[in-house]
Amino acid sequence: MINQENAPREEKATTLPASRQIFVRLHTAAGPRWGMVIQGRVSAWRGEPWDGGALEDDLGLLETLSLLAPATPTKIVAVGRNYAAHAAEHGGEVPPEPLLFLKPPSSVIGPGATIVLPPSAARVEHEAELALVIGRRCRNVTPAEAWGCVFGITCANDVTARDLQRRDGQWTRAKGFDTFCPLGPWLVRGLSAAEASALTLTCRVNGTVRQQASTGEMVFPPAELLAYASSVMTLEPGDLLLTGTPAGVGPLTPGDMVEVELAGVGRLCNPVSR
Ligand code: ZN
After folding, report:
1. Number of structural domains the chain divides into
2. Among 76, 79, 141, 190, which is least packed by CB within 10 angstroms?
3. Ligand 1 geometric centre to CA of 215 (Å)
């Protein structure tokens, strides 16, 4: 289920302009399926949405369905220090070129799933981020070409064990625990690159705003990040690019409810437990 107590606030994302489409991945008796949201109901979608496909049978009202993470990536490319104010809060400079790292696909969880704090970490923090989901194989593209490889966007939480990040010097362990990449609640398709760079990104913990910024404050905008990443590795349909987090990162504790919202796109809610 989409986090029930907060369900009414999800509704606004289903009233997007007609040029935009919402794709969900959901749990069904026959296994995971894709669907398209149309006026609050979900119709099954044959195959992967980026492969074309077609609408099939009606699956019911969106709020009655159990949503899964709206991507099954072969890799998750992420970027550090891509908002100047966040770089500054950790005493770091903005890098001269994008600072890439990877998170494992095994870290992905869907909306409503629990972020589990590992015993080896003393301080685990939220990082609200805009995520791009790739729709077309993407290698050595220019920034002008990059947006054409994006299928849609969604909310992500780049959960990070901050103490382990500092101790290790590189980020694989700190960023890589199971459940450290909440994603969703759905993919929104049809935003231009300019529209994706003018979204309000907010993180709330137990209803209190912790992070809030415009995606226009990124040091390297999404299309530049994607072009840069594609000069290193081939991105496949379903892969994710996380575009960095703004200032205000802070700790998560057991019992918390953390939300990442992209205004007009959707709101991703996940509980936290030990
Ligand atoms: Zn991050």
Report:
1. 2
2. 190
3. 13
* Closest CA relative to residue 258, chosen from 83, 111, 119: 111
The answer to whether 262 and 153 are in contact (CB under 8 A) is yes
Q: 220: CA distance to ligand 1 center in Å?
A: 14
CA of 80 to the centre of ligand 1 (A): 6
Q: Look up the CATH number of the domain holding residue 191.
A: 3.90.850.10
| 243 shares a domain with 176 | yes
- 95 Cα to the center of ligand 1, angstroms: 14
Q: Is the pLDDT of residue 12 over 50?
A: no
Residues 267, 143: Cα–Cα separation, whole Å: 28
Is the pLDDT reported for residue 8 higher than 50? no
pLDDT over 90 percentage in the chain? 85
| Pair 175, 227 in one domain | yes
State which H helix or E strand residue 168 sits in: helix 162-168
Ligand 1 centre and the CA of 43: distance in Å? Answer: 33
Model confidence band, residue 17 (pLDDT cutoffs 50, 70, 90): low
Q: Ligand 1 centroid to 30 CA: how many Å?
A: 34
Ligand 1 centre distance from Cα of residue 185 (Å): 18
Whether 11 and 81 share a structural domain: no
pLDDT digits (tens, 9 = 90+) for 109-149: 999 999 999 999 999 999 999 999 999 999 999 999 999 99
Range of the domain at 33: 4-68
SS3 state of residue 63: helix
Distance between Cα 101 and ligand 1 center (Å): 9
pLDDT for residue 174: 98
pTM over 0.85: yes
